[in-house]
Amino acid sequence: MSEPARVEDRREEWNGPVPVPTGATVPFWAATLEGILRYQACDCGNRQLYPRAVCTGCGAEDPPFEASEGVGTIYTYTVCHVPGEPGFADRTPYVVGVIELAEGPRLLALIDADPERLEIGASVEVTFWQVSDEAAVPVFVPA
Ligand SMILES: [Zn+2]
After folding, report:
1. Cis bond before residue 39 (omega within 30° of 0)
2. Distance 61 CA to ligand 1 centre (A)
3. Could you tell me which of 103, 112, 105 has the C-alpha nearest to residue 138?
């Protein structure tokens, strides 16, 4: 595991949805506050994000967590000119993408970058925006 990623305190300004840690997601969100992106790595070889109570590969309960290096590539993305969330209205255009982590799992996340300069396959790394006392959302930036 490399150094933890940067965590920016955005609690005052954030108007978007706030994740509520429950069940299998509690260890995931706790780690985000420390700048660590965790995924689940099951004994069967399956790796998954977001966290679930069971492995999507074999059905095992509570697959263990591992820390990602926080780097990956843009698998696909979209530029949102019309906010999908009312709280994102003052943020348009913003970018949402699917990031394929170096370890394999893919996750949907905000990409904080100039939409004109993005391309599929580009390298990105994780940072975190802390949006509540309980959670920091992963936000990817060009690596
Ligand atoms: Zn499994």
Report:
1. no
2. 8
3. 112
Residue 83 belongs to a domain: yes
- State the distance from the centre of ligand 1 to the C-alpha of 142, rounded, in angstroms: 32
Three-state secondary structure call for residue 94: strand
What confidence score (pLDDT) does residue 89 get? 81
Question: Can you read off the two tokens belonging to residue 11?
Answer: 């609690």
Nearby residues for ligand 1 (ion, Cβ within 5 Å): 42, 44, 46, 55, 57-58, 60
CATH at residue 58:
2.40.50.840
**pTM of the entire predicted model:** 0.93
Mean pLDDT by 10-residue block, N- to C-terminus, for the chain (143 residues)? 88 92 96 98 96 97 97 96 82 92 96 93 98 97 95
Centre of ligand 1 to C-alpha 105, Å, is: 13
